[in-house]
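Posted in: Structural Biology > Protein-Ligand Complexes

Title: Requesting predicted complex, magnesium ion in pocket

I'd be grateful if someone could produce the 3D structure tokens for the following input. Sequence and ligand are given below.
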Amino acid sequence: MEAPVQVEGLTMAYGRKLIQRDLSFEIRRGEVLAIMGGSGCGKSTLLRHLIGLQVPAAGSVRYGGEDIHSEDAAVQARLRRRFGVMFQAGALWSSMSVGENVMLPMELFGDHRDAAERARLARGKLELVGLGEHFDAEPAALSGGMKKRAAIARALALDPELIYLDEPSAGLDPLTSARLDDLIKHLRDDLGRTVVMVSHELASIFAVADRALFLDAQSKTMIALDSPQRLLEQGPEPVREFLRRGEKA
Ligand SMILES: Nc1ncnc2c1ncn2[C@@H]1O[C@H](COP(=O)(O)OP(=O)(O)O)[C@@H](O)[C@H]1O
Ligand SMILES: [Mg+2]
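-- Reply #1 --
Done. Output follows.
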């Protein structure tokens, strides 16, 4: 079966500032792929390239053979419906209720014209993330972990096959973070979704990631892609060091 996403020779830069070069990998259907690496190595930048928000300096990102950076608006619109995103600062709109936040992508990009139907679907997404009771709540009333889960519900609004999460468990306490890991496993194991998760939370990486991609800040390219356990045992030294941080703490 063809991988949903193929990245080939991707080089990313801001003007003349090279961030990462020559990244080639695929995202496999039904996996949780972690993108890891030190702060500032280019993880969020990679995510923005994967979803077509930033244009590569070189190389390509393809969804089932179609270029996410195509200038054809119809291709863009079609591809963009295949994934949902939770950005690093995955803020909810504070002027809308939690439910309205989840309905927003449906209003903007969805097929359901009927408001009652959109509300019913949004409620379903909130139930999925354990927030069924909070449809009418104001985002400000939610805890940090609940906000993240609401943002994930919003990312799921259009039933994407692929979900991108940028640092979902950053800033959460271990228990809340573990609940989020369970949600990610549920998305993969029970709902058959593919999840790409930027993370430097080791517990989370080991708990949920099938494979992990390491972006090296020094050489400015990927130096490893394998299961976290294998990387810990036999990955390149900078990766093992990254994965061993927890033991020292
Ligand atoms: N809009 C931008 N313009 C110029 N440089 C940027 C911009 N956004 C991020 N950078 C720089 O690119 C590098 C990678 O950033 P980022 O992808 O956010 O890293 P990470 O998510 O791995 O912490 C950093 O050095 C950051 O300062
Ligand atoms: Mg980042």
